[in-house]
Amino acid sequence: MDKERRLIIAGNWKSNKTVAEALDLVSGLKRELATVTEADIVICPPYTALDAVSKAIFDSPLRLGAQNLSDQAYGAFTGEIAPGMLRDLSVRYVILGHSERRQFQSESDALVARKAANAHANNLVPIVCVGETLVEREAGITEKVVGTQVRGSLAGLTVEQVEQTVLAYEPVWAIGTGKTASSAQAQEVHAFIRSVISSLHGEATGRRVRIQYGGSVKPGNARELLGQPDVDGALVGGASLEVRNFADIIKNTLQSPA
Ligand code: PEP
Q1: What pTM did the predictor assign?
Q2: Whose CA is nearest to atom 6 of ligand 1?
Q3: Measuring from atom 3 of ligand 1, which residue has the nearest CA?
Q4: Which residues are within 8 A (CB) of 160 and not within 5 positions of it... i.e. 6 or more apart?
Q5: Which fold has domain 7-90+106-127+146-248?
Q6: List 100, 136, 163, 170, catalytic entry
Q7: CA separation for the pair 215, 176 (Å, rounded)
Q8: Tens digits of per-residue pLDDT, 202-245?
């Protein structure tokens, strides 16, 4: 698939997989994806499996991501994970502001922005998630909601940092529900997000920033969704927990047209 920006496909394992299960999944992914070089492939295990997975993927094209990060550099913040601890394990990416954290941990745009700044200050690439609920979509305020989240969650970042940030558009109504945004719906919001970035930081930055789609991405719908001009990858939840599904999402997306 020929794209203006390099594709980035990430698997968010959420609170799933013991260390043994994680290593089992990784060994299958390494076998299936050993030769993939045309896209960034990122796996985001739970914290407890990061060390083992990091060691297991060092000789593969897979890259490592975490699912959250403290907004503090280090110190007396019980239960938080500081950026240096992730760097220590060769973590490169970190998912921030996932809708589950916004909903269940009351994470605000301002907190996400502080976490994103902390990530950048420590050479981690934040994957910043935004997306509207079903009620908000049906009320016709998708752009208002998503625009506010994008502006708030990137507040205070430099142009260079914004350019290096990956955004993930994840309509909340499509996460784990089996409902997927149509490719037209995804493209419309992705183009809108790009226009918000362009208006804040200039056209060149808007053109360079990568925007993933997330929400029930599966082997059967990945190629069409990721074929949209402003969709630069996928953030995959449920389908990233099983070798065949995650590998097929990547293979189906990257295969040359018949
Ligand atoms: C997610 O949680 O980021 C996600 C997109 O989940 P799923 O693929 O299961 O909808």
Answers
A1: 0.97
A2: 237
A3: 237
A4: none
A5: TIM Barrel (3.20.20)
A6: 170
A7: 7
A8: 999 999 999 999 999 999 999 999 999 999 999 999 999 999 99
